[in-house]
Amino acid sequence: MKTFTRLVVMAAFTCFSVGLFAQTIGIKAGYTLSDMLIKEEGEIISEPLEMRSGLHLGPTFEWAIGEGAGIETALLLTTKGIKMNESDSFEDVPYSINSTIKLWYLDIPVFGKLYTDVNNIKIYGMLGPYVGIGLNGKTKVDETVGSESYDEEYDIVWGTDENDDLKRLGLGLAVGGGVEVNSFLFEFTAHFALNNISPQADYDMVARNRSFMFSLGYKFHK
């Protein structure tokens, strides 16, 4: 826990310190769709999985590095996770299991941005790596067997031990684009994790987060 606290404080301090020297400070928020790429023994598990709706919010910091180009970073509080729904019957007794993994992350992307100006409207594309730090998480399970219903909820255990649920640190690649009109931003980004966050890697388990973000933002020019 001490290592986790230091990691979050260091990330926040670094981002805000860097922000003091940013040419432009902004804010963005919006809608997030997330899921996971899950493999077990090399086979992709997809049939019972559904995307989870969520949100994201945080400050942005940008520097121009030439005409039509820039670098942007951000400190985004982001929901991630997945839904799993399965139903069948056993000995003529129907059953269904609905599970939701709810994760909160601190995402820190670093984008290279390219702009073009069309009739005073900036159109841009961006690409770069990101670091995701798992902050909190819960799993909720609703099960129905015949006419009986059960539900339970438990906290995600973060760590690298094989008995833990998920590794806390995620690394990935983000790509996106948008338009800027009078300092207002309309943007889409996709985040694809590159590292395996399953502690059960020795058992051929793979889990990688994926997020799709639709954002509105505003730039406060210095």
Q: Radius of gyration, Cα only, in angstroms? A: 20 Å
Strand content: over 45%
**Largest sheet descriptor:** 12 strands, antiparallel
Number of strands: 12
Structural class determined from secondary elements: mainly beta
Q: Output the number of helix runs.
A: 1
How would the global form be characterised? elongated
The overall pLDDT average reads 85
Describe this structure in words.
By secondary structure, the chain is mostly beta strands. 8% of the residues lie in helices and 71% in strands. It has one helix and twelve strands; from the N terminus they run H-E-E-E-E-E-E-E-E-E-E-E-E. Strands 1, 2, 3, 4, 5, 6, 7, 8, 9, 10, 11 and 12 form a twelve-stranded antiparallel sheet that branches. It is elongated. The protein starts with a helix and ends with a strand.
